[in-house]
Amino acid sequence: MAAAALLAAALGGGLLLIARRYLSGAGRASRSAAAALMRGKTVIVTGANSGLGRATAAELLRLQARVILGCRDRGRAEQAAREIRAELGAQAEGGELVIRELDLASLRSVRSFCQRVLQEEPKLDVLINNAGIFQCPYMKTEDGFEMQFGVNHLGHFLLTNLLLGLLKSSAPSRIVVVSSKLYKYGEINFEDLNSEISYNKSFGYSRSKLANILFTRELARRLEGTGVTVNVLHPGIVRTNLGRYVNIPLLAKPLFNLVSWAFFKTPLEGAQTSIYLASSAEVEGVSGKYFGDCKEEELLPKAMDDLVARKLWDISEVMVGLLK
Ligand SMILES: NC(=O)c1ccc[n+]([C@@H]2O[C@H](COP(=O)([O-])OP(=O)(O)OC[C@H]3O[C@@H](n4cnc5c(N)ncnc54)[C@H](OP(=O)(O)O)[C@@H]3O)[C@@H](O)[C@H]2O)c1
Q1: Tens digits of per-residue pLDDT, 162-217?
Q2: pTM
Q3: Rounded to whole angstroms, how far apart are CA atoms 217 and 207?
Q4: Which residues' Cβ are closer than 6 Å to ligand 1?
Q5: In this structure, are residues 141 and 110 in contact, taking their beta carbons and an 8 Å threshold?
Q6: Is the peptide bond before 254 cis (omega within 30 degrees of 0)?
Q7: Active-site residue 199, yes or no?
Q8: CA distance 98 to 165
Q9: Backbone conformation region of residue 321, classed left if phi is above 0, alpha if psi is from -120 to 50, else beta
């Protein structure tokens, strides 16, 4: 009986997998056809050595962009770059991969990354704030911020602000922010942004992803009329290394792997909305919007609270030292 149920589940999962692959593959082909040629465009992708960032960087390279991989570990970035070039072969010709060290858990590192970009790059067409950390135990960044809020929100907040001048002088240009549907479970608790009173790793992640959306909407307001757009997305559930801090019991691992193979997106499938927002002519001039599966989606009221967004912006400016 149990064996029959397992077999039925495996067969059902297999059929679902084939159907999903077929449908998402078809979507990808049409999206790629619609994607504007990125030849000659300079793009920064943070966290580009793994998962969604790696897939995004590879696809933009295939579209002949100059892709700057902003990564905290040079060895992992070099390995990813080698693998991407090997996978693409002749399709990588015309584009360029450049590695630059960027640790979003260190404001010093963010500043020196930006300083180098500003010195070396005459223009910046797209910034993709992709790097992220998920449900880690309580840890602090170099500057004493709770890690998930520090990396996912504050590091990218400083990065974007320091690169805004270059993005403006390169207009039309785009900023793409990778958030998550889990923002729905977050709140911006201004009285404990460093989670010193209490820390819950799930809430910490959701809060940082809500902050990504509030940041995007406030930035879009500030960028009106500049030719720089900023949009935010959720990628869906994707099979990446994001769950490295999640403990799955040894016995449950095979089942988890089966389920993830059947139901989670591949990194390339998950990266489609980032690629779309970075490169498609369809979203030219569109700003301050939330996307999933390459389509605009609605937000909960908590993510559209302009007063909270402004307050978060002001506090973030002080936290990262942009405003004394
Ligand atoms: N996977 C999903 O189902 C899912 C769902 C919703 C949203 N997202 C979002 O998608 C984005 C990409 O995640 P992923 O799923 O591709 O996970 P991933 O495979 O773990 O990739 C995350 C990337 O972020 C980098 N990173 C982490 N901390 C960093 C730091 N301090 N400085 C610079 N880079 C850092 C990682 O570098 P190392 O390799 O050196 O650690 C890695 O390159 C994240 O923002 C995540 O929140 C993912």
Answers
A1: 999 999 999 999 999 999 999 999 999 999 999 999 999 999 999 999 999 999 99
A2: 0.92
A3: 16
A4: 46-47, 49-53, 72-73, 76, 102-105, 130-134, 151, 178, 180, 234-235, 237-238, 240-242
A5: no
A6: no
A7: no
A8: 21
A9: left
